[in-house]
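Limitations

Structures in this collection are predictions, not experimental determinations, and the ligand pose is part of the prediction. Treat each record accordingly. The example that follows, with WT7 as the small molecule, is included so readers can see exactly what is and is not provided: the inputs are given verbatim, and the output is the predicted complex.
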Amino acid sequence: MAFRIQTFEEYQEEYRKSVTDPEAFWEDKAKHFTWRKKWDKVLEWNFTQPSVKWFLGGKLNITENCLDRHLDIHGERTAIIWEPNDTKKDKTRYISYAELHDQVCRFANVLIRNGAKKGDRICIYMPMVPESAVAILACARIGAIHSVVFAGFSAHSLIDRIQDSDCSIVITSDGAFRGAKEIPIKDIVDEAVEVCPSVKKIIVLERTGCNIRLTEGRDLLWKDEMKKVTNQCPATETDSEDMLFILYTSGSTGKPKGVVHTVGGYMVFMAYSFTNVFQYPLEPAHSTRPDIYWCTADIGWVTGHSYIIYGPLLCGATTVMFEGIPTWPDAGRFWEVVDKHQVNIFYTAPTAIRSMEAQGLGYVRPYSLDSLRVLGTVGEPINEEAWQWYYENIGKGKCPIVDTWWQTETGGIMISPLAGITPVKPGFATLPLPGIQPVLVNHDGKEITGNGVEGNLCIRFPWPSVIRTTYGDHERCRQNYFATYKELYFTGDGCRRDENGYYRITGRVDDVINVSGHRIGTAEVENAINQHPDIVESAVVGFPHPIKGQGIYAFVICTNSQHDISLLKEEILAVVNKMIGPIAKPDKIQVVGGLPKTRSGKILRRILKKVAEGETSNLGDTSTLLDPSVVDSIRTGAL
Ligand code: WT7
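Predicted complex:
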């Protein structure tokens, strides 16, 4: 069977095969790639430890598959179209596969020259410029493990991530442009590395030209280093199960955890999901214009890793990388870029769609958008109104919308329509990709069978890009994902399966808030707020937000009732900004006298959630509370 499914019947047939004989199914997909040595065994797994290994004994380098493999057939094809933040300052860049290969080899040599070896962890803290892709692929080329940190995170967040995995090199830029703002990235790195003794070198790309401090012997300029090396860099052979990257993500407790993905399985699943979900033709003939694909995510999130870089490049696609923001210089920027580059496939977040919708059609009308063929969404549930707006006004009623459900831990898209093949339904991620076996369970872990049901979403069988471990703490991986329900991977999401077997993800069922498609742990925000000297305790919950999907609502107890409340709130925002970054700043802060706790001291968030949602009369059972009267005072003081 071909790698890319072309009809719904074929999808059904492929799905059936993937369940009856998963090993034969994935072995067949893996054959499409360049392996230095073929695997000895397709799969070994148990979800108890957990331990999952795909393509055991296989040897390869993922960059040979992303780059070298394409050179003979279409080295001149554009791999990356880079659209700058400000077109008045910078020109669009078109980087061919041959050029990207050249840059990656050179930068891989820069890393080697600076002491990087296979297995080393390298932190990438960069804006959306092609050099970020070069840095990522250069790590992969030498078998080093990249840990990309979103450049919107604070120095504190960066410290946690660098220290957790003992990164030896940080790759960064002097500054970053975001709309009208200029952010001093290197200063943040400087602050962070003061307490990160593992960091021996910092390689700095000059992007904004702002002033930076360079520490002799430690800090190097990208451009100087690139002059010292050649473009010859044979790829380091890695094992299928060697780590490819670490990506930190928030959970319901403690500090962010480093989700680990490994080389072989991740590669196979990214190419397979990319070509199938977006129906991107694989290696189209030399003469035809390749489809232009644009994913608006940041490379600091898993979407950027999997569907700006690895998935598209593995398939020889042309991928757009956008440095700017959707609302600058005005809310028509996305559509201007779509027309400018004649984008065929456009993939974005529901939050972005809702904020465009809120700005009105005046920003859409000037653009034809005729080139669009497929639209996608990711990161959070999409409400029906936003879905319809996207479908009518952007897709002009002719583009299927792929609502793709997946997670940092799943590596790639798990439940989604295949564009133009799976009949769509607004708000539904529809059906699992071949190889993905979703299960709904009730609170006792009992499977809920049949259709027209709702429960907690689990996956019963491994897929090639399932999380392998959480870096440095395997027990945490087990606890978080494999311990809640026996023999199942638990996603943390609630889900409905409708009468036709279509899946609709309803949102997190754990203490994680999804703000604009970004995962924020309530505990993390609470820990940050509690750093404020006048805060005794805090409790954070999510509430429905018209644009962001969910907003952050913080209930705080402070030491001194004489406080200037508005000043206190400002200080809380500042402390969260400093500890985590702007994305975690609470939308609402309410000072309370007490929190609803059980006799054992557990905060009943369910009650706070109701208050945050604006529900004040029916708060459910409050009989287990130590002091039920706190609820009344919270309710009457609600914002
Ligand atoms: C969480 C994962 C997947 C890459 C971006 C976010 C939510 C994701 C959907 C969707 C409803 C979705 C889930 C999931 N989510 N996609 N299509 N419909 N919810 O990655 O930070 O790992 O977050 O995002 O709640 O668990 P992430």
